[in-house]
Amino acid sequence: MAEEKININGLEINYKIAGQGPAILVLHGWGGSSDSWMETQKILSQEYRVVIPDLPGFGKSAPPANSWGVGDYMDFVLKFTQRLNLEKFFLIGHSFGGRISIKFTGKYPERVKSLILCDSAGIKPKPGLKTIIIFWLARTGNAVFTPRIFKRFKDSVRNLFYVLIRNRDYAKANGVMKETIKRVLSEDLLLELSDIKKKTLIVWGEVDRMVPLKYAYIFKEKIEGARLETLPKIGHSPHLEVPRKFSEIILKFIKEDL
């Protein structure tokens, strides 16, 4: 396994590459990096060429100069694969990486052999009563913290708000990545799922609390011909919890296209 660096539009990007043969591109989740996929990469690279970039703002890759949306990350993936001469590849997207993979596959189907979505984000949940109350409190809080004397408390309260709605990623983000996650979370890709015409596998941990299993069934319904594999007693990150089982499912799926 080698770790390399490449410059994409002025951003220094770190990535790991291992193996030979048909290419697999892996897009990690929010807060993750290529490091979190090392065990799975070792297994898959026994038969395939596996490329895993640290997405801009994560791992050892530089953050974007301004806040990005999902479309900006999609454009980055296109430039990255062009620079590495990856003309066609199997695409794996986990969580936030799934958002990017959905958008990429819909726009550039000619570059994707088949798509694997793992506990993917992308569908904006309808707000429940608890969320509505919290948002009302947040709006009230904005009014309360407008006076100059209270402004110094505003960021702390905002971080608490995102924790309460189970989005700790916002509280952990720094600088431009705070605005980036807000843009990413505001995008609902539900209507774009029908644009995916590539063979698709959906892999999901049955006890995922970050993106519950009910969303896996929506993905399966909206993506024509999609197949769903569920993993009992597994949470949001099958590649970390059961890397060998997860890899076996992927290998079985992609070998059907060879």
> Termini distance?
24 Å
- The domain count comes to 2
Please outline the major beta sheet.
8 strands, mixed
Count the DSSP helices: 10
What amount of the residues lies in strands? 15-25%
What is the second-level CATH architecture of the largest domain? Answer: 3-Layer(aba) Sandwich
The CATH C-level class name of the largest domain: Alpha Beta
User: Strands of the largest sheet, in order across it?
Assistant: 1-2-4-3-5-6-7-8
What is the succession of H and E elements? EEEHEHEHEHHHHEHEHH
In total, the number of strands is 8
CATH superfamily of the largest domain: Alpha/Beta hydrolase fold, catalytic domain
Overall mean confidence score, pLDDT: 88
Helix/strand-derived category reads alpha/beta
CATH topology of the largest domain: Rossmann fold
